[in-house]
Every structure is written in C-alpha cells, then in structure tokens.
Inverse folding.
C-alpha cells in the first residue's frame, strides 16, 4: 500500500514538473508570436488549445487579418511539416489527396502524395471549392487517413487542418454542410485590430525595425513535446459537477427557441477535451468552470443553426451561445 502511494506521489510530481516546463515554453512561443503578429492573444490561446486537444480549426475573418501568417508561424514554432492548399472552384479531390501514376520503368503504379499529407495543413478559403472536393477531406479529418484507389494512407499523429473562410464574400462559394462543420473542433473568428494595435502595425512597417522574417524563426516546441502533453490529457482531473455543467450547456442549445438545430454529443466531448487542453496550457492538471466558459462558445458556435427569426433580429450563433452559457448555473 505504501509503495502504491509513493508511486502515485512520484507520478504527480513528474506531471507537475512537466507542466511547469511546458508552461514556460508556451509563454516563449506566445512571446515570439507577438514579435510577428500584433494582438490576437485570445486567438493564439484557442489555436494552441485546439492543436493540443487533437482537433481541426475553422478560422473565419476578412482578408488581411493575418490568418495565413498565423498558421505558418504556428507550424514553424512547433517544428511541424507545413502545407498550404488554396481552394478554388476548379479544384479536384486528386489535387488535394494525391494521385496514382503509372511508372513506365517499373511497370507499376506509384502513389504521389497530395498537399494534404503534412502535420499542419492550411486549407485557404475552404468554401471556395465544390462539395466533391470538400467531401474529400471528410475521411482525412475524422479518421486521420485517406483511402485512395483501395489503399489506406495514414496521416501523422500531429495531423491538424486549419481551414479559413471569408465571412463576407459569398459569390463563387459553396457553403460547408453541417456534417463537415461538425468535424471542426472549433471555429475561431479573427476580427479587426483595435486602434492602438493598428497604430503599432503601421509603426512596425514604417520603421521596418521590428519586422521578423519567418525564415529566421526557430522552433520552440517539437512534435514530441505536444504528443507527450496530449497523453497527459487523460490525467487532467474534472469534477463530476463540471461534467454535468458541460451537459447542461449543450442541453440548452437543444431547447432554446432561437436555435433550429442544437449541438450533438460530439460537441459535449469536444468541450470536455478543449477545457482539459486549455487547463494544461495554463499549467494546471485540473479543469475549472472558467476553462469551460472560455472554450465552449468557440466549440459550439459553428454547430448551431439559428432559426429565421433570430437571424432577422441580428443574432449570431456566438452571441446566442454565450447567452445560453450565462443561463446555466456555475458549479461552486
């Protein structure tokens, strides 16, 4: 019995030591991002949370707010293999997944990997491609594998898709179906910078002194660090009252009069995993109600379909979600 207690104590000390070291690296990573991108601290937190929780991210924002730059920078800092796919109306599934080519020398077929085979894959303007090409990502996003010509090709353990879309321009776009939206762990909206932030951006470009080239940036984390921390997600403590708190929040989306289609149990699991990942990023091995309140709106907003009346009144899924969360009593 005493040996068992000593073993558990040693494991607890090791976990806290690892979390402390990881928290220091995360802060270094955030500081480095701040040298390239002004502001967007919450976006960076959500992006790191989603990657740690092993989920894909949908990033929405108008052109010019550094969506692509942030994705490239994140891949560089975690030493991940990066790939970018520009979705266009004429893009075919084979352009994304790859194709099998006949080799004249060997008289055999050779598979040429498409750009989807990387650690961090940026899918720019995902709603520009037709449904057939969008559907090609379904299996890749859910199963972390691609079946091509009867052969299954596995993706890497860190595999993450960052998809962007423009919320304003709808001409020549194909709306993502709910089934595919549900594959994204989070939807993150990147808005305009504040006045002070925009002034700092202009000053950087005017003086050209503080601009940092991506080629000069060195990795701060390695893939092994992130994969090791992912394994610790299962050891993050969540009180039963917080499990119930998550369930009550999701139940609210199914009973609200403003919502036509509520969130599924997959959303409940996504909130749980995201809250545990966010807790780890804060250097903790336990979840608090604040962790849940922070991640829940971004896990839920793209999974909800508002009714016509709510949309006509100017409500957004994010506003409705935050309002529903506030209705649920926070566990003491």
């Amino acid at each position: 019995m005493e040996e068992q207690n000593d073993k558990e104590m040693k494991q607890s000390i090791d976990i806290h030591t690892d979390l402390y070291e990881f928290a220091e690296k995360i802060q270094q990573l955030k500081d480095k991002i701040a040298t390239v991108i002004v502001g967007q601290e919450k976006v960076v937190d959500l992006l790191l949370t989603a990657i740690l929780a092993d989920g894909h991210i949908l990033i929405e924002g108008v052109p010019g707010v550094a969506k692509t730059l942030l994705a490239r920078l994140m891949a560089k800092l975690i030493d991940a293999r990066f790939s970018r796919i520009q979705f266009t109306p004429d893009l075919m599934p084979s352009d994304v997944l790859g194709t099998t080519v006949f080799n004249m020398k060997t008289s055999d077929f050779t598979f040429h990997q498409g750009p989807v085979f990387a650690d961090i894959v940026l899918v720019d303007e995902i709603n520009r491609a037709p449904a057939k090409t969008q559907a090609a990502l379904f299996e890749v996003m859910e199963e972390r594998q691609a079946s091509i010509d009867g052969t299954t090709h596995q993706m890497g353990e860190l595999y993450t898709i960052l998809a962007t879309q423009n919320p304003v321009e709808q001409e020549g776009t194909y709306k993502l179906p709910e089934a595919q939206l549900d594959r994204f762990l989070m939807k993150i909206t990147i808005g305009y910078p504040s006045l002070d932030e925009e002034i700092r951006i202009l000053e950087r470009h005017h003086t050209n002194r503080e601009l940092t080239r991506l080629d000069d940036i060195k990795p701060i984390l390695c893939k092994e660090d992130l994969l090791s921390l992912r394994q610790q997600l299962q050891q993050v403590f969540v009180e039963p009252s917080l499990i119930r708190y998550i369930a009550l929040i999701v139940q609210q989306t199914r009973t609200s009069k403003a919502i036509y289609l509520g969130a599924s149990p997959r959303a409940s699991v996504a909130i749980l995993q995201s809250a545990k990942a966010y807790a780890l990023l804060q250097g903790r091995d336990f979840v608090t109600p604040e962790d849940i309140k922070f991640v829940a709106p971004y896990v839920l907003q793209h999974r909800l379909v508002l009714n016509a009346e709510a949309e006509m009144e100017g409500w957004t899924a994010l506003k409705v979600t935050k309002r529903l969360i506030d209705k649920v009593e926070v566990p003491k």
The chain has 13 helices and eleven strands. The mean pLDDT is 80. Residues 2-36 form the longest helix (35 residues). The chain has two domains: 13-232, 236-332.
